[in-house]
Amino acid sequence: MVTRSTPWPAGTPCWVDCSFAPAHRGMHHAQDFYEKLFGWDVRRDQTDEDYLVCRKDDQPVAGLQHQYGGEAPPYWTTYFATEDVEATCAAVTAAGGQVLTEPFDLPGLGRSAYCADSSGAFFGLWQAAGLLGAGLVNEPGAVTWNDLMTRDLEGSKAFYASVFGYTYDDMGDAYVVAKLPTGRTVCGIHQAAQLPDEAPPSWLVHFAVADRDSSAQIAQELGAQILMTMDTAYGPEALLQGKHGEIFSVIALADPPQE
Known about the structure:
This protein is α+β, with helices and mostly antiparallel strands. It is built from four helices and 18 strands.
């Protein structure tokens, strides 16, 4: 079991959450869906009912929160670890991105901000306090990988290199994996030629599962759509869309990473 008890290194995707509209019992349905799909324990005794921390094997793995304002569909947000959210926001602006929501505190959890990269892909920043980020990764029911789906591979590479100091390994097929200055591999960037014209660039969250087909079937029975299945070098994978519109991936890892 891969667990974490210290803050994630700066520049590492360290947390994910999804926002659901209060109308039509969106949060209630999301809790039920992900509890049944991933076996999460969505704590209902927290003081902040607008933000729920989901746990697997008693470790935090993701968040669910109310969405306020606008009519955008729910989406899974990838957060990057930072030791100084204000300084990272300045780096985002200097690299051609935008700070969409200035740094703010989530009492008892951490400090955050929302940004868009130079191509418009949305992401969050996370300066850990009480919540260090994901406490469990690379195990069924937990996040195992994050990919940026972009139309501008070179521009995206330059942006994240400037903000987080990434270097890259070219994996072929218009795909690179990003590494921290320490050499640690942390995420991927893909030139996604198949993106529909109306779809913005975005970060895709991959959740590990024990079996792709059974997990995809459970999701479908719970109201999700199976958008695509594929057999990858890392294991069988399915691209899913939750009943409220959020898109995510499930993958049965052939050889789970050990960190």
